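In line with agreed milestones, work has continued on tokenised descriptions of protein folds. One protein thus recorded appears below exactly as we store it:

>
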Amino acid sequence: MTKFFRRIIKFGTPADLNSAVYLASNTVAPAYECVELGIGDTLLIKAISEAYGSNKATVKDSVQKLGDLGLVARSCKSKQRTLGFAAKPKPLTLVRVIGAFREIAAISGSSSGKWKVDIIKKLLVGVQDSTETKFIIRGLQGKLRIGLAQSTVLVALAHALTMTIPSTVQVDDDGNDDNNDEEEEEEKDDGDDNSNEDPIVKAMMDESLTVEKTLEAHANMIRKVYSEVPSYDALLDAALKVPLVKLNEACQFQPGIPVEPMLAKPTKSIQEVLKRLNGQEFTCEYKYDGERAQIHKTPDGTLKVFSRNLLETSNKYPEVSNYVQEAAEAAIANQKEEKKEKKDDDDDDDGDGEFTGRPVDSYVLDTEVVAFDRVKGHLVPFQILSTRKKTQESGESATVQVIVQAFDLMYLNGKSLLCKSFKERRRLLHKHFAPVEGKFQFAKSLDAVEDGDTIELENFLDAAVKGQCEGLMVKTIVDIYEPSRRSLNWLKLKKDYLDGCGDSFDLVPLGAYFGRGKRTGVYGAYLLGCYDEETEEFQSVCKIGTGFSDEDLKSLSASLNEHKLEGGKSSSYNVAKSLEPDVWFDSVQVWEIKAADLSKSSTHRGALGKLEEGRGIGLRFPRFERIREDKKPSQATNSDQVLEMYYNQDSVKGQGGGDDYDDDDDGI
């Protein structure tokens, strides 16, 4: 991949590089733009049959035999007879292919299916090699299966930009841009309490490092910038203008583009939390049972709400951004009142902007949106929030009312706060926003220093659970905000996990088994899998038949029936033959699952071969909790996380291995 990118950088155009990165990552636009191709297998089968003169029924039969529509398309292309004197079509280019994909994504309306098929046919007819057909079809399916995760693409891009500097990059004699000194002076005067030199930049500038370490530092820069600005367009635009050492200055986190959220490591006990903190100052916050929401205000006044997986949810929660604005205005009113009482006319001089009497111009807040009963004045479980429609005309008229529980501030008045300590970010959050009854509150918190005493923490955890919360978030207060990273600086402690696996699992339903007795007419059990990023496959980890209400069984059966795989098991599913379900589904949903423990399995394929050759890991006694609408299948619990949770079990820590288990003993 690095060699390929280097050739494009040297001989191609910026548009070629942009197209290559998007195609390699199997995307057509940044995640936050919510661009979907909207193509099912039925449309692809129609396009293949029409482009290559094959019978639809024959194509369907081939899908059942091969289990991969891409292989079927390649076979149809290779069998197609062409006239020897016929003019060859123009070769497909990267720009043309990604352009066609984006054109397909933009089509909507009653005749959209026909128009999409026409565009796909033009691509298929333009193919000069049957292998191209395979990957065009897979790309349209969103399942490229070339062994490339997003992280691999970013590392390859970093290596390519390091070894082949684009001709468009402007550098001075020292390898840096000329506008450095003035910007550095501004940073010094910024009032940032984390003023030490960026360790990534320091490593990139260190000429004593080996080639491998230098490449690693450059890859870390690309990862850091992309986690803060998750847009290949913005990343590449900057990378083609400035040296990589200056990339974080040319491509910065800003309102309007959601940052990948910081995540927490699961813990199983209060003792484990205290052991990890090891004498540090920390804070505990209620872990609210809602939906994570990033709330943005751009300098032009635009307000947006984004979900955990960077999808815009402004239409789902139209009142949320207004609640935050009210909180900002309430803070101004409080400050005016305080000044009046103190008769203090001095300007605000704490480095975060003068007191103007107006709400903040721009910001990004990290919050949890929670269902709220305004009549009784208390929080409501997530199950109620999940019934809220995806589009609301007005928050006030919505059946399910919500409240915003704010816990972090990542951007304020034109400046990123990601490199400031949590203590400073929280101070600014509480200064520039104020509680508004029934609409906006700060996460309830308790500050402490780890001294071995568990009583205060236990009481706070009990209070959180009684307050309709899942448990606690435990955070060190001196550390910075680390986008997309699951850091030991943030720990989650849930009451339900204290005697279990330490965390829940987010798994993908791969297939189902017909119900019997009371469950006749719906599916009685499901086969679930985790995601392996290296192989781009879903690996079975359990069969599940518990935790479902009657309503769950009906709704899940109905929704998944729309995504049956006519050709049988997908080639991206790693499932033992003995577990084969009655019906296979496309990977479209993510379910939160709790389990008693994990064990080695000769049948299930979770983290296959990583624990023991030829064996995987399976869940015992899994229980359905809810659908995770805020996650895509590729964001499901991955095989490395399954392996880590297996090793974290007390039974494994104490004995050096887990017991084998009967594969039928997983809750059915």
Q: What stands out?
A: The domain at 505-655 is CATH 2.40.50.140 (OB fold (Dihydrolipoamide Acetyltransferase, E2P)). The chain is about 35% helix and 20% strand.
